[in-house]
Write a structure and sequence with these properties.
5-stranded antiparallel sheet; alpha+beta; 4 helices; homodimer; globular
Chain lengths: 188, 188
Amino acid sequence: MLLKMIAVLPFLALCAVLANGLFQNDDSLRFNSKGEMIFPAHYREWVWLTSGLGMSYNAGAEDPNPDFDNVFVSPQAYSSFLANGVWPNGSVFVLEVRASHHQGSINKTGHYQGDLEDIETHVKKADGTWAFYGFGDGTKPASMKPKSADCYSCHEQHGAVDTTFVQFYPTLLKVAQEKKTLKVENSK
Amino acid sequence: MLLKMIAVLPFLALCAVLANGLFQNDDSLRFNSKGEMIFPAHYREWVWLTSGLGMSYNAGAEDPNPDFDNVFVSPQAYSSFLANGVWPNGSVFVLEVRASHHQGSINKTGHYQGDLEDIETHVKKADGTWAFYGFGDGTKPASMKPKSADCYSCHEQHGAVDTTFVQFYPTLLKVAQEKKTLKVENSK
């Protein structure tokens, strides 16, 4: 029996490597001893949900130098949402803000993406509550934004599913419609 | 020996499941008996590289109703590029074109993404040659675009790495700079 177990060890090690996926997705929600969120270093290998350009929730003139907003979600959360249309505890969203460029290389009109400017996360903690963290353009652990920050009330009031803006994620909007998990008043 | 092998079988099966990842990434380049490329159904779970809005390589007025261009690459190709700065045979890129919307939900200015309009792929075949396939807004197998199509000459002339527009993929541009795989004349 012991021999059989020893024979199996290399396969178990291989499984551990393979289970980790092609990349170190690092999609667990992790905190340090101070309660700060640890930067999700591999978010670019997560599932991308959408990108917007110059989006603003306040009326006003168009930004002449708009930023791109890129949204990623942790793979486990995405998989769960496809199955159920809701976000499990431990879900992590990353908002990556990048500068836009207009003319460069062979591009003549429109906008393409440039340097990183800011990273924020929106997470559903183990107790089911949501929290925001701001990392700026760095990778140091971040403390939770205070509950008085505008992002909390805005996401609670306007999120189409839970506190998330699924109305802006075209593929997930269809999932939520099928699963009937949309707050209808926020879905358009 | 046979017993040991039988004992190992469940672990091998588990490995196969785990190796497939959380999703069915379906990133193998597959063709049907007619030589048509089979639609890469799970490309939204691949690695996203960038999104542009209204990008055009021809001078002219800004498009009043610009489209978003979203670019994905197969995970194996991405992993190889991170390691080497070049694309392996079997690499698959997906260009997903979506309509943009201006005002909707709580958004007042800028642009967010809407319905799918078109999907094209750019692939490095087993023999190292590149080919383009157009799927439109459907999922039927697609025949290779003729070599006379503009996309071939444009990508050959202006690609920053091989025939690909790495100059527009901000994170990969840094990789290619480090690995010294950029065609310098096409990198800006």
